[in-house]
From TrEMBL:
Reactions performed catalytically: Endohydrolysis of (1->4)-beta-D-glucosidic linkages in cellulose, lichenin and cereal beta-D-glucans
Species name: Cupriavidus metallidurans
EC id: 3.2.1.-
Protein name: Glucanase
Pfam families documented for this protein: Glyco_hydro_8 (PF01270)
Length: 387
């Protein structure tokens, strides 16, 4: 399957400060990267396929991100297909009553071996919140009340089933409904699951209680207080009476999950009151990239030491908005170009593609976020709808 991303065809990159437009691609609102992703990775019936595995899996994360990208592209037809597939196959046909299952694909074990369906029914909270966010914003931008209602119900269910009040911290997002309260006084958390843009938008839903606003604050603490050397871990534990501690399973490593922490940080609105603190918390990562010319694939976040390998092109695309937000526009330009060059050498996999759609799409001006978390797609303000 040909996965070469169409961003490779762009000729020039023009940088500006603070995570704003880095290319002129958004002037016409054409988004070749999205078109390439849609053709290569999304099935005709609306399933995002990770073909790097024999099981040809679909994860709820992929569906959630694709819904967001379809909204950014003003691609209502693809949005509808993605939503229908997600509801029918991951949510037992009803997103108002069920959170989506985390993973779907070809089953290889048990009585259902050889058939296609849900492999792991435990939901993933980051995907659930991104789906709710995309539905709420689709409702607002497309003036579709059905999406607003569905997004509100999904967000409320996630609040009930995927958060807990942690002693000494407050209400906090758990990675899923089950399996993350590992002992009576210990919870396992994931900093990359909390995008402050998403949290702020959900906190602004009319008629909601203060729980979402609390989640903004605890999410910021989860992001900033788990990076003692300026590098985010993939996973972390929270212990009653002891606070955040290194994760016993991943040994404080920061890698394929954590790269999204820098991505979300780089896309924060300039007027977000937490933006400066969050950006400064990870400046050592920016210093490393400037010195080495690439982000590391793995970091020991407790010691600040690095693994031997460089991060792939998706890592470079994800880190570029963060560098731009710090004003390091030359470094942002270099990482954007590295992402394109590596994709030209070897077709990018599913995860690298979505990191690139976020990172390069933001740099190219296809979308931005307001301080309240609302989405500003280029098609809404600078060009007419094309789909």
């Amino acid at each position: 399957m040909r996965r070469a991303m169409a961003w490779l065809l762009r000729a020039t990159v023009v940088c500006t400060l603070a995570g704003t437009v880095l290319t002129s691609a958004a002037a016409t609102c054409a988004w070749p990267d999205w078109d390439a992703f849609r053709r290569s990775t999304i099935s005709q019936d609306g399933r995002v396929i990770d073909d790097s595995t024999d099981q040809q899996v679909t994860v709820s994360e992929g569906q959630s991100y694709a819904l967001f990208f379809a909204l950014v592209a003003n691609d209502r037809a693809t949005f509808d297909k993605l939503l229908t597939w997600t509801e029918n196959n991951l949510a037992q046909g009803d997103l108002t009553a069920h959170l989506p299952a985390w993973i779907w694909g070809k089953r290889t074990e048990g009585e259902h071996a050889g058939t296609w369906g849900v492999i792991d029914a435990n939901p993933a909270s980051d995907a659930d919140l991104w789906i709710a966010y995309s539905l709420l914003e689709a409702g607002r931008l497309w003036n579709e009340r059905r999406f607003t209602a569905l997004g509100t119900l999904l967000a409320r269910r996630a609040l009930r089933e995927e958060t807990a009040v942690l002693p000494g911290l407050g209400r906090t997002l758990l990675p899923g409904p089950t399996g993350f309260h590992t002992s009576p006084d210990v919870w396992r958390l994931n900093p990359s699951y909390v995008s402050l843009q998403v949290m702020r938008r959900l906190a602004a839903m009319p008629g909601e209680d203060s729980s979402w606003k609390t989640l903004v604050d605890t999410s910021a603490r989860l992001i900033m207080n788990t990076a003692p050397h300026g590098f985010s871990p993939d996973w972390v534990e929270y212990h009653k009476g002891r606070g955040f501690r290194p994760d016993t399973q991943t040994q404080a490593g920061g890698s394929y999950n954590a790269i999204r922490v820098y991505l979300w940080a780089g896309m924060m609105a300039p007027r977000d009151p937490l933006r400066t603190s969050v950006l400064q918390a990870f400046r050592p990562m920016a210093d490393y990239v400037r010195k080495q010319g690439y982000p590391p694939e793995r970091v020991d976040t407790q010691s600040g030491t690095f693994g031997p390998n460089s991060g792939n092109g998706g890592f470079s695309a994800a880190i570029a908005p963060y560098l731009a937000a710090l004003g390091q526009t030359d470094d942002a330009r270099a990482q954007a170009q590295r992402a394109r060059d590596l994709a030209a050498q070897k077709p990018a996999g599913y995860y690298s593609q979505v990191l690139a759609l976020f990172g390069l799409g933001h740099l190219d001006g296809h979308f931005r976020f307001e301080a309240d978390g609302t989405l500003v797609p280029a098609w809404k303000s600078t060009c007419p709808a094309t789909r």
